[in-house]
Specification:
By secondary structure, the protein is of the alpha/beta class. It has seven helices and nine strands. The protein has one domain. The N and C termini lie far apart (58 Å).
């Protein structure tokens, strides 16, 4: 392969190897997926459950097997580890890979590692959410930010248009829950299910109080 699509970017088969037939490249990707070396992240409208019902199979991203192997494939040397903030490397691609791995690990061993993302291509109002997570009968949007700052425009759009109880931001921002946005530091990712459950309980209690 002469070129690969970066992690977090929509997959374009022709960009992987311009000298190979697109059908052959697609077949190779499918085989790597069956071997669990790659995981397909499918675009969905997020309009309801199951999310598979609302997917666009022509819009996918790919997640690599392991964040360490990804960094090696990207040529991130030991000098880079010491000299740079890896969270900012490749515009946060390594961070997005890390969170994707953690979400897959939440699946049961006998379940397929399916992941979804949300994308809206309305001219002048484009928006994208890195991952969507199913919690009970609700869909939780997840944004991955490489630093402590970063806009939450897409997250706000999804919350407003899909009546989601809350959104999650993974970054280096301290743990907090404000205005229906749960901020979780990257180092606390293993506590994600519990924190989402507790935040949803808070939202439910607030709604009961308002009624």
């Amino acid at each position: 392969m002469t070129q690969t699509s970066p992690v977090g970017a929509p997959l374009i088969y022709s960009s992987i190897d311009r000298n190979s037939n697109t059908r052959d490249v697609k077949r190779a990707v499918e085989l790597l997926e069956k071997a669990r070396i790659l995981t397909r992240i499918r675009a969905t409208s997020g309009a309801g459950l199951p999310m598979e019902t609302y997917t666009n199979e022509k819009k996918i991203k790919l997640l690599f097997l392991d964040v360490g192997l990804l960094q090696n494939a990207m040529g991130i040397s030991s000098e880079t580890f010491l000299a740079k903030d890896l969270l900012a490397v490749y515009r946060g691609a390594v961070t997005e890979q890390f969170i994707g791995q953690q979400l897959i690990s939440l699946k049961k061993p006998f379940e397929d590692p399916d992941l979804f993302y949300w994308s809206r291509n309305i001219p002048g109002s484009e928006a994208e959410i890195d991952y969507l997570y199913q919690y009970g009968e609700k869909i939780i949007p997840i944004e991955v930010k490489s630093g402590a700052a970063g806009t939450l425009k897409s997250l706000r759009i999804f919350l407003r248009e899909n009546n989601a109880p809350l959104g999650v931001r993974f970054s280096m921002h301290p743990l907090s829950f404000h205005d229906h946005v749960l901020s979780i530091p990257l180092f606390a990712v293993e506590a994600f299910p519990r924190l989402v459950r507790e935040a949803c309980d808070i939202v439910t209690n607030e709604n009961d109080f308002m009624e």
